[in-house]
Write a structure and sequence with these properties.
With 85 residues, this protein is an all-alpha fold. The protein has one domain (11-83). It is 59% helix and 0% strand. The N and C termini lie far apart (71 Å). The mean pLDDT is 85.
Length: 85
């Protein structure tokens, strides 16, 4: 169901946004609707403490489990000591 709303927005911003919409072959209404939709869904994910991970980042998983008490600094220092022996 669609409904109309009235917004008070700076004229320059409206003109610039209309130019942007035309250059991307979209309507200003569809751009605003997409933004509001994303804004609302983003708030929901923040409330659930969910972090959306992109498919690309997910594809980089190796399956290696790192212990919770792993000391990165000690490991790096050991690496440097071995490297510069």
């Amino acid at each position: 169901m669609e409904a109309e709303i009235t917004l008070k927005i700076d004229k320059y911003l409206i003109d610039t946004a209309n130019e942007y919409a035309q250059s991307h072959k979209k309507s200003l209404s569809s751009i605003i609707e997409a933004y509001l939709s994303r804004l609302v869904s983003s708030d929901k994910s923040q409330l659930n403490n969910d972090i959306e991970i992109s498919p690309f980042v997910k594809s980089l998983r190796t399956g290696v489990k790192i212990p919770a008490d792993y000391d990165y600094e000690e490991s790096y220092n050991n690496h440097l000591a071995e490297k510069y022996k």
